[in-house]
Model the fold of this input.
Amino acid sequence: MERENQNRLPDKRPGAAVTTQKPRQSHAKPAPDPAIGLADLIHEIRNPLNGMDTTLQLMGRHLSKVRAYEDPVMVSYVQSLRKEIQRIHSMLLDVQTLWRADLQFGPIEISILVGDILKTDPFSNGECGIHVESDVSKDLPPVRADDKLLKRALSNLIKNAVEAMPEGGTIFVSARVSHGADPEFLMSDSVHIQIRDTGNGIPEESLPHIFEPFFSTKDEKGTGLGLWVSQGIVQAHGGSIKLRSREGRGTTFSVALPIGGPSEQHAER
Done:
């Protein structure tokens, strides 16, 4: 006997029985929003961290009262613990930054944004032998961007330049507008920001991994998330970031941002 074809069309002859199949109802629960879950998790982690940091502050005050704070070993214990807690806080903030879904886009003046960064960061006063040269025109067209996130991305790049020059050096910050198809970024109508330092440079074997999360050339000093976060923020704006570096010759980060912000297709990703 031939096997019955279960996928055959219904019999439409007069008088033929008609069988109607009801569509199956799906009782599957909608998938939870991962961004909300991550925000809750980070909140739960940061709460005990805040308690630990407060306890260490109180411990330091108590030790100073009983003069035990003069013990250099005890001082180093308290300082090391607080430093590690702040490091974890920074890591959580970096991760949370990339999961934000509420980017607030508006017209941003790059010259003002860069100026604010250079005023607020400690090297603006010439500390640690760091000198900054800025060539950012006030005539640049405003860029549609999230002010706080873009400031975070550029601050990370400038901070990276500072840390690459422990003996001091110079940071060059410049910006220009490109209306044609730029040969480097293949992006028209964009503002290009360049941050160059005269530091140690990055070893060639590290260059392919420099934007990977938790990868760092600073041993235990960095979280390995700063450049990863900067890249994610730039890409969320429909932009691109590139790196050129030679060991012993310094490093250059180049950022291209579309003047009109990310395209609709890019924003829906």
In short: The helical segments are 34-65, 72-99, 110-120, 147-163, 226-236, 264-267.
